[in-house]
Amino acid sequence: MNATVETVTAPAPARTPPHATHRFRLLLRREYWEHRGGMLWAPLIAGGLSLLLSVGLLITMIFVARRQIANGSRIEYEGVTINGLDLGTLVSQLNGDDLRGLADGLYATLLMSAAWPYMVMIFVAFFYCLGALYDERRDRSVLFWKSLPVSDTATVLSKVVTAALVIPAISTAIAIVVMLLFLTALSVAAAAHGANPLPLLWGNGMAFLLAAQLVAAIPVYAAWALPTIGWLLLCSAWARSKPFLWAVLLPLAVGAAASMTGLLQVVGLDRHWLWGNVIARLLLGTVPLTGADLSYLQQAADGGEQISNLLSVTGVYTNFATPSMWIGIVAGVLMIALAIRLRRWREEG
Questions:
Q1: What's the pLDDT tens digit per position in 189-223?
Q2: Which terminal CB of the chain, N or C, has fewer other CB atoms within 10 Å?
Q3: Using CA atoms, how far apart are residues 73 and 56, in angstroms rounded to an integer?
Q4: Alpha-carbon span 235 to 243, nearest angstrom
Q5: 3-class secondary structure for 228-241?
């Protein structure tokens, strides 16, 4: 009756170590939470200020136009005199060429309204890379991160992906939202003055074209930025102190010495060749403009090209057909590999 009941405890199942992709995702999340102020709030505030200034300028222009009309001024277009701010009458006089010109102008306006988050992104990405490996050595947190089962390669690559893709993606999303909100403000102003904004401002599809182009251009500018990202991470991993001085003053000093001495002319290169082909690639890669973009902007300014083709997918991706793009990619990869090696060795503050 008093039988002894023995309970057998099942062995605990062995815990499966997290997959490498899960670890890498956690590393990316760490970078975001540690630098959320620069990655998110800085471009968000810049975009908000841009929107406020743009809307304020729009209201000022409407107010000035109303005052001029109240003082007796009239709007004339192709011999048609329009009383007041009746934009509907004005729009009815536009032909196909005028509408195409209006669409091109709208594209340029939306691009300028979306530029502020990108301007902030340039500095955020630059200083993020510059302190990415130096700061963790300075505050000794590198010892904690090295104690975790995460390789130096994965850690450094998470910083590369953050600088090349995450920061531009966040800035692009904010820029698109700012652009669409500004277009909404333009639509309200147009509707308040007799014009139908749907065919006039939205029907040409410029807002959606620009948004798609901005998203599609992210991988191109990520590849273009690799030399700068690699150089800044290398300086961040190597410098014992003041990585900014090493990263900036060293290339500038080399470029100034080459220009003053004329050493490059000995090998058949222009005296200032180093500035545009090496130093600019090391320091200005976070600027989302390639050499081909600058050439296209010059052609558009001269009237040879439409500004709406500036960020066309075919035009942007032709950068991969240029030797400078691939030389920069190879140089960036080599410098990133050196930064990984240095992180394994350097732990001092």
A1: 888 877 788 888 898 889 999 999 999 999 999 99
A2: N
A3: 23
A4: 6
A5: HHHHHHHHHHHCCC
